[in-house]
Design brief:
- Keywords: Signal.
- It comes from Gordonia aichiensis NBRC 108223.
- This protein is α+β, with helices and mostly antiparallel strands.
- It has a domain at about 35-135: Sandwich (Immunoglobulin-like), CATH 2.60.40.
- The chain has one helix spanning about 1-25, and strands at about 30, 40-45, 50-60, 65-75, 85-95, 100-110, 115-120, 125-135, 145-150.
- The protein starts with a helix and ends with a strand.
Length: about 150
């Protein structure tokens, strides 16, 4: 009887620790942002319409309160072929519940003509989650990244 009670207590503690770690995982990468601080959301290999390429997302915190410059790049890695992919950065403010998307169909033609979408966006103050997505599956999809905006 005593052994059973000890076992159930240990199992209960293990579940509590697991739950606490799981709850903390969503905010573990939250970083206090400073003006002109830059964050890479992800950089991952994906299959484009006619080639293989790499989707990249970046966030640059602007000095104006709650503003960010969001860039999405599509860089083809198949020689001699234009390559198109819909790559986006989705953002969601955890305090205000506002959200938006930057990106779209991006075509990589050469090293000098990369597929790029860029926008200055008012995302608001507080924690903002940024996620890099593409129409076709990313090889290892990056986890959403949270930045605490000034």
């Amino acid at each position: 009887m005593k052994l059973s009670r000890v076992s159930s207590t240990l199992v209960g503690l293990g579940l509590a620790v697991t739950a606490a770690v799981g709850l903390g995982a969503g905010t573990a990468n939250a970083a206090p942002a400073k003006p002109f601080q830059s964050f890479t959301i992800g950089q991952e290999l994906a299959l484009g319409s006619s080639c293989v390429g790499r989707a990249t997302g970046n966030v640059l915190v602007q000095p104006a309160r709650g503003h960010a410059n969001i860039d999405v790049y599509w860089i083809g890695q198949t020689p001699f072929s234009p390559c198109t992919e819909r790559a986006t950065v989705r953002w969601y403010n955890l305090n205000t519940h506002r959200s938006g998307v930057v990106g779209g169909p991006l075509t990589y033609r050469s090293m000098w003509q990369q597929g790029v979408a860029s926008a200055d966006v008012f995302v608001g103050s507080g924690p903002v989650r940024f996620t890099l997505t593409a129409d076709r599956p990313l090889q290892f999809p990056p986890a959403p990244f949270t930045v605490v905006m000034p």
